[in-house]
């Protein structure tokens, strides 16, 4: 299958292309840009064609799949056009900025047997599986605490621009809600939520929420993009606790660690390194070829969109 990139974003160059080299399912077709000069860095890395404008890539019938790392406000427009051109679509998170837009894309993809994938790549890292397998050791679960925040990235970053779909909830907040739903299951609901704003910005800069499932298990999440760096999961059980501090951002080659405390005994477990970005791309390839994977992805994308919508309804 041939895959092309819509846009010359930093994540596409720094993360997607190196990961794509490891995925045998795809051949790199090229990158589309409104500035043809920007495509040269991509062509130098993996070859491929430099498409002059987004539509020229979508019009290429030899391309099967599209990766879209554009700012969130542009996701719906260009994902819709890609689907209408018969392409399978992998979108950076958030999928869209409105649940109604997400539903439109999922409905269209389902009717036309096209794959969709939202790139929450941390879920594919080996550490998530290891964490799940360790949870029974700490007894009956009482609480999850999930935090993701990072320092200010500069005013020119799209995350701080409302017109581009910026805001902490759509960015780092989406990670925390996604992991909370993964741990609590499909019955997870948001019971309380708050967003914080900082003078000089028209987007939310930090926030928090509480989620609870039908069994009464609770997850507390917090996030921010003008914060000291945190990227952690804490699980508290009847017999002990579990903690890890790189649950969302462990890069290829990095070995995360997990601390398990049972009574007075603290054990530090070194976890294997992994390339979660490459595995996320591989999962997208599986969704293209496997109807069951494709249907499950539709469900996961809609679940995430509904959680963000619930959050926004509470803070109105």
Account of the protein in words:
This protein has helices at about 10-20, 40-45, 55-60, 75-85, 100-110, 125-135, 170-185, 275-290, 290-315; strands at about 1-5, 25-35, 50, 65-70, 90, 115-120, 140-150, 190-195, 205-210, 220-225, 230-235, 240-245, 255-260, 265-270. The protein has an eight-stranded mixed sheet, with helices on one face. It has a six-stranded parallel sheet with strand order 3-2-1-4-5-6, with helices on both faces. A hairpin with a 2-residue loop joins strand 11 (about 230-235) and strand 12. About 35% of the residues lie in helices and about 25% in strands. The protein has nine helices and 14 strands. The chain has two domains: about 1-115, NAD(P)-binding Rossmann-like Domain (Rossmann fold), CATH 3.40.50; about 125-275, Dihydrodipicolinate Reductase, domain 2.
In short:
The protein is built from nine helices and 14 strands. The protein is α/β, with parallel strands linked by helices and 316 residues long.
